[in-house]
Amino acid sequence: xxxxxxxxxxxxxxxxxxxxxxxxxxxxxxxxxxxxxxxxxxxxxxxxxxxxxxxxxxxxxxxxxxxxxxxxxxxxxxxxxxxxxxxxxxxxxxxxxxxxxxxxxxxxxxxxxxxxxxxxxxxxxxxxxxxxxxxxxxxxxxxxxxxxxxxxxxxxxxxxxxxxxxxxxxxxxxxxxxxxxxxxxxxxxxxxxxxxxxxxxxxxxxxxxxxxxxxxxxxxxxxxxxxxxxxxxxxxxxxxxxxxxxxxxxxxxxxxxxxxxxxxxxxxxxxxxxxxxxxxxxxxxxxxxxxxxxxxxxxxxxxxxxxxxxxxxxxxxxxxxxxxxxxxxxxxxxxxxxxxxxxxxxxxxxxxxxxxxxxxxxxxxxxxxxxxxxxxxxxxxxxxxxxxxxxxxxxxxxxxxxxxxxxxxxxxxxxxxxxxxxxxxxxxxxxxxxxxxxxxxxxxxxxxxxxxxxxxxxxxxxxxxxxxxxxxxxxxxxxxxxxxxxxxxxxxxxxxxxxxxxxxxxxxxx
Amino acid sequence: xxxxxxxxxxxxxxxxxxxxxxxxxxxxxxxxxxxxxxxxxxxxxxxxxxxxxxxxxxxxxxxxxxxxxxxxxxxxxxxxxxxxxxxxxxxxxxxxxxxxxxxxxxxxxxxxxxxxxxxxxxxxxxxxxxxxxxxxxxxxxxxxxxxxxxxxxxxxxxxxxxxxxxxxxxxxxxxxxxxxxxxxxxxxxxxxxxxxxxxxxxxxxxxxxxxxxxxxxxxxxxxxxxxxxxxxxxxxxxxxxxxxxxxxxxxxxxxxxxxxxxxxxxxxxxxxxxxxxxxxxxxxxxxxxxxxxxxxxxxxxxxxxxxxxxxxxxxxxxxxxxxxxxxxxxxxxxxxxxxxxxxxxxxxxxxxxxxxxxxxxxxxxxxxxxxxxxxxxxxxxxxxxxxxxxxxxxxxxxxxxxxxxxxxxxxxxxxxxxxxxxxxx
Lengths: 510, 425
Ligand SMILES: Nc1ncnc2c1ncn2[C@@H]1O[C@H](COP(=O)(O)OP(=O)(O)OP(=O)(O)O)[C@@H](O)[C@H]1O
Ligand SMILES: [Mg+2]
Prior knowledge:
heterodimer; A: about 500 residues; alpha/beta; Rossmann fold; six-stranded mixed sheet; 24 strands; about 25% strand; B: about 425 residues; mainly alpha; ABC transporter involved in vitamin B12 uptake, BtuC; two-stranded antiparallel sheet; 15 helices; 2 strands; about 70% helix; globular; binds adenosine-5'-triphosphate; binds magnesium ion
């Protein structure tokens, strides 16, 4: 029996209007990887914020015993002094500083306030080696991908002599490969005696690395499972309170004529004029059809979708878009929306939501015409709409007046979805629609997608989770380095087949 | 999952029940009314320390006249700040437009066929258009060329400061035609005729009321009560929570009492000043704009998250452009009010006013980061500054102290706001 490193006892935390945690207990053993699972808004992030001092002692009830001593953290600094480091759901790196500067931010390698750059770079290099990242420490963070940024965060944690590492949905925006690398790293840390707590909605990852799993539902601890008991089904049952028969609702596609057709679409990088990001793409969508775009991170899927949606990405865009056989103009977002196209972003924080405003206003902003006449908004009609969509997408909040910045990550995602559902487009492009969403809610979102398709809408889903694409689409495009490199009916597709088209394309390119 | 939660309506709604507690609702409202309360407390404070001068009808009328141009500009500045911008040029632009008005009406000698340009109404219209054009020009650079508003309007401030000096040739120009002076110095006519209240006589002097003013105030109160009852009924009919009846009554009574009290004060002097009518209409319109018009909603959206707004189909550039054009027109109106009040245009008119205007908006709770701010807050913020100016002048506080105290109040107001927000987060 190893010894307990952390005990959280009867933690209760209330926000105005919601009790996020009530009497939660958590036990973590030294050197284990402990997973926390639960639905969106169950209180996972909140519990970790209590632990790391983001919510200071006194703002919650209950006790935290760490290494046998009761702790009253008043800030993140306090907990970091004890070796507890949290990496938040939304990364907190400064994009325009270098990797080295970010790693030592707030903890600068300095003598008398003067930064020692050699020390900083050497230190950074060592830490980067530990997390297996081969990048120049002087590279700006904005120039490296999300997966690498996540590793920089971990390097930063290591620089603080971490003993208990907390990762809140670390793999949500990572590719399959990057996720694997990160999980391997955690297993490596375990060998070195570092304890980790990981929050994730990707249950396959959890069953792979976790020693024990604690499930939280509605702000309460449901149970803690030991290694031998951990199975995905068991976790799901515990999370949602019932067993989930299927991960994907069944679909009976009724596919009609071509609604949207994109021909010869090319886009250049917004800063580097010569770099072609999207290369002569041709795709089409049919009425009632759910089409997926598979591909690795960085294959240009988001860039393609955003350039199509009112030229919101890139420059020197060329190509033609036809809707129901007629050429349409998508030169700006307004025109794209007017032509019945909608794009729900993968980046809810930067592109999706006005985080300082509440759910109601965020739900209606893309379709103000629907709740107004002569430019005058009908308050009550708007309230009806917001409540209606809150119910449809099952957003967990105190009311439609909750500020979206205070929602849990998954619920924020649902607000983005509500906004575009209300805009009632004919063609809906969903970019990573289930990122950070719990299994139960994923099922609900798939159901909504099916309903939309049944109403005759065309839906284009971009997703990095291949099982999801295989589970919900009718047809698949495979994209690689800005090109469509494969197309297949989903009934004939498999993960291997998709990977094969990618690899074949890479072989051709080089 | 919370499938069965009843549809909820108000932010105060916290519990599952659809009945709101009096205290809970009061607390939710306190945050909205805190600023108004602060204004009332400040007024009472000065009422005491000026030995009752502050609330004299003539002084209250004065406070309105003295602050009208600040409030007019604060309305536009609120939009600018909510959109995440700033306009440093409004003081100079208002001064320039005042100068333009003076030159049109008094300074320039037009040939007979162009003499109509000197007519106060024509000149006023030209001035408003000029202001809107100036704002539009600045807005064009800010919105479409992405030059930071701080820089564009800083340049504008210097340019229009110089231009007013130039067109006035360094001299004061006045007086204005009487029709134009009425903008600031006039009162609405008493169409009904005065009412004498002998039983309220003081020192043997009867209280004579400007009856039309009282009638307008009573109509306004009745109208506002009618609309709040209707709104409440509609919400209830749709099954949404409403505030407790007791609080609803108290709130309406307090507001009605305040309005009637001030109307009574004004009526016992010379009635409603013309400029208050102009202000009242503008304030009502801007409240409507920010709360109900899609245009207003888009301003908050783009101030809160520009990229998300753009990706939701908000025409962020065009909206920003319009905001600055509106600001320019309001600065022009303020410039005319200011000039009419002084009855001459001076080269230094308007200088530094932008700071008072910006301060009023921030005291009123707007966020420097954009996306947050209310018209009512900006108006009350302007009155807080105005009452302090007035009260301290009456008390004989030196101008140097006045400046410092106003600075401290600005800081305190913003600090208090942030503290409140953090506590509730
Ligand atoms: N600052 C806040 N103010 C008000 N409510 C909040 C605040 N932060 C969180 N909440 C509420 O607390 C609850 C728990 O949120 P939390 O972020 O811990 O969920 P989570 O389990 O991490 O969900 P997810 O899987 O979606 O990330 C939610 O209902 C959320 O709306
Ligand atoms: Mg979370």
